[in-house]
C-alpha cells in the first residue's frame, strides 16, 4: 500500500513538475513574441500557443483580439493620414499656379510709369505683393511637407559645399532679417566644407531656420560653423522672449506655433520640414535653450540654439 501511494505521489510530482516547466516555457515564449510584436506593429503578427493549455489559450485569444483591434485602428489611421497628405498636396499644387500669376501681374503693374507718381497706389500694391509672397511661401511649405510625409521627396545626394550654400542663403535673406530689426552676425569659413547633401534641400533648411529666427528672435541672430575631422555643425542662435522651456520639445511638431508667431504668417511646418530634410540627407537638427551668460535683468530672455549637424564628406567614400 505504501509503495502504491509513493508511486502515485511520484507520478503526481512528475506531472506537476512537467506542467510548471511547460507553463514557464510558454510564458517565456509568449513574452518574447510580445516583445517582437511591440517592436513593429506594422507586421500584423499574432501571439501563438507554445504548449496546449485550455486556460492559456483563452488568454492568448483575448490578447490576439485586442491586438487585432489595435492593428485595424492603425490601418485606418494610416489610410486617413495618406488621404490627408494627398489632399494637402493637391490643394497646395492647385494654389501655386494662381499665386504665380497674381505675383506676375503685380510686378507688371509696379513697372507701369504712373506707379511712381501715385504713392498710395504703390504702397497698396507692395502690401498686396508681400501678402501674396507670404501665401506662396506657406503653400510651398505645405507642398514640401506633404511630399516628405508621403515619401515622394527623393533627394539626389552629392558632394556639396555647406559653407558656400550658407553664405549665399544668408546674403539672400540678410535684408529680410534686418527688416526684423535683428543684429545679425556670422562666422562662416571661407574654405569649402564638403558634406553629402543636396543644394536645394540645404537652401530650404537654411531658409526655414532664418524665417524662424525672424519670427521668434528678439534682438540678435548669430550663425556660426564649427568643424572637425568627422563632423560639421551649423549653429543658429538667437535670443527670444516669446518662447518658453515647455515649447522646446514641440518646436519640430507639425503645425505647432507659439502664440507670438500666429500673427506673423507662420504655418508651424517650417521646422518640421527642415528637420525632415536634414535627416533625409543623413544629418540631424536639434534645439535647446540656454540662459547662461544672461544677467538677472535679462532673466525673461532666453537663447534659442538650433544645431544642424552633418558628417564631413570623405573623398575616399563614393556618394550614394
From TrEMBL:
* Localization of this protein: Cell membrane
Question: What Enzyme Commission number(s) appear in the record?
Answer: 2.7.13.3
Q: Which GO terms describe its molecular function?
A: ATP binding; phosphorelay sensor kinase activity
Q: Which residues cross the membrane?
A: 6-27
Source organism, top-level taxon: Bacteria
SUPFAM superfamilies, from UniProt? ATPase domain of HSP90 chaperone/DNA topoisomerase II/histidine kinase (SSF55874), Homodimeric domain of signal transducing histidine kinase (SSF47384)
Q: What is its main location?
A: membrane
Q: Which Gene3D superfamilies match?
A: 1.10.287.130, Histidine kinase-like ATPase, C-terminal domain (3.30.565.10)
Please give the name of this protein. Answer: histidine kinase
Source organism per entry reads Frisingicoccus caecimuris
Amino acid at each position: 500500500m505504501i509503495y502504491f501511494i509513493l508511486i502515485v505521489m511520484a507520478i503526481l510530482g512528475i506531472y506537476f513538475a512537467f506542467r510548471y516547466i511547460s507553463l514557464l516555457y510558454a510564458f517565456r515564449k509568449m513574452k518574447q513574441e510580445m516583445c517582437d510584436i511591440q517592436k513593429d506593429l506594422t507586421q500584423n503578427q499574432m501571439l501563438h500557443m507554445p504548449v496546449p493549455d485550455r486556460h492559456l489559450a483563452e488568454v492568448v485569444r483575448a490578447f490576439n483580439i485586442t491586438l487585432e483591434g489595435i492593428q485595424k485602428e492603425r490601418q485606418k489611421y494610416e489610410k486617413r493620414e495618406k488621404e490627408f497628405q494627398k489632399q494637402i498636396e493637391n490643394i497646395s499644387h492647385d494654389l501655386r499656379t494662381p499665386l504665380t500669376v497674381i505675383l506676375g501681374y503685380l510686378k507688371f503693374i509696379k513697372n507701369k510709369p504712373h506707379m511712381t507718381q501715385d504713392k498710395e497706389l504703390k504702397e497698396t500694391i507692395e502690401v498686396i505683393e508681400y501678402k501674396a509672397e507670404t501665401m506662396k511661401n506657406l503653400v510651398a511649405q505645405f507642398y514640401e511637407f506633404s511630399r516628405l510625409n508621403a515619401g515622394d521627396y527623393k533627394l539626389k545626394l552629392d558632394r556639396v559645399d555647406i559653407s558656400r550654400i550658407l553664405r549665399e542663403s544668408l546674403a539672400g535673406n540678410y535684408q529680410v532679417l534686418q527688416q526684423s530689426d535683428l543684429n545679425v552676425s556670422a562666422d562662416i569659413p571661407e574654405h569649402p566644407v564638403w558634406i553629402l547633401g543636396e543644394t536645394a534641400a540645404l537652401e530650404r533648411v537654411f531658409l526655414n531656420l532664418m524665417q524662424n529666427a525672424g519670427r521668434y528672435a528678439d534682438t540678435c541672430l548669430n550663425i556660426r560653423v564649427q568643424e572637425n575631422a568627422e563632423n560639421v555643425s551649423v549653429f543658429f542662435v538667437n535670443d527670444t522672449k516669446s518662447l518658453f522651456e515647455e515649447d522646446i520639445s514641440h518646436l519640430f511638431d507639425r503645425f505647432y506655433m507659439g502664440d507670438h508667431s500666429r500673427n506673423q504668417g507662420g504655418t508651424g511646418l517650417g521646422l518640421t520640414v527642415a528637420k525632415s530634410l536634414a535627416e533625409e540627407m543623413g544629418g540631424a537638427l536639434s534645439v535647446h535653450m540656454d540662459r547662461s551668460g544672461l544677467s538677472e535683468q535679462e532673466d525673461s530672455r532666453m537663447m534659442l540654439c538650433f544645431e544642424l549637424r552633418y558628417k564631413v564628406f570623405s573623398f575616399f567614400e563614393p556618394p550614394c
